Amino acid sequence: MTVSPQVTPPATPVPTSPATQPSPPTAAPPSSTTATATATATPPSVPTSLGDRFERIAPRLHAHGLTMLRAGLGGVFVWFGVLKVIGYSPAAALVVAVLPFPAGEWFVPALGWGEVALGLWLVSGRARAMALPVLVAHLCGTFAVLVLTPGVAFAHANPLLLTLVGEFVVKNVVLLAGAVVVTTRPRR
Question: What is the value of pTM for the model shown?
Fold first, then answer.
């Protein structure tokens, strides 16, 4: 039986791809290819990915987003209020049906004028701290439908199955959250 001696290969560097292989320092004279490579290299301060670009513009988008949110909320309040004032609101019958007291002909238009005033208040951006409790009270009042007339808001008496009216009311959670954000934004 013959034992072959174990042969150890000489230590040579393993070839790697050009991207991972370090380039040796050389002092090559400037040429047109070197100048082109330097000119096309991306400076470190310029964002290279979509995420980096978004991070750079996000603060400006946020500032404009708050303005858009305030205008959108105010616009919705004005629009819905005007519909109540002129007698074309599809929610007028629901409002009257939910009230625990008999409402006269004056109630829905008065509520509409109140919504117009709230909307203009939001758009103006003035006295935001005082607007918040009024907005919260108004929006929480809309949730009375869920408590006082659940048969109108929930299908088959199941609180997870909303009717069209139920969806109309529950979306006010988003309006309420938007009102809190807009009215509590710190001053610049």
Answer: 0.67
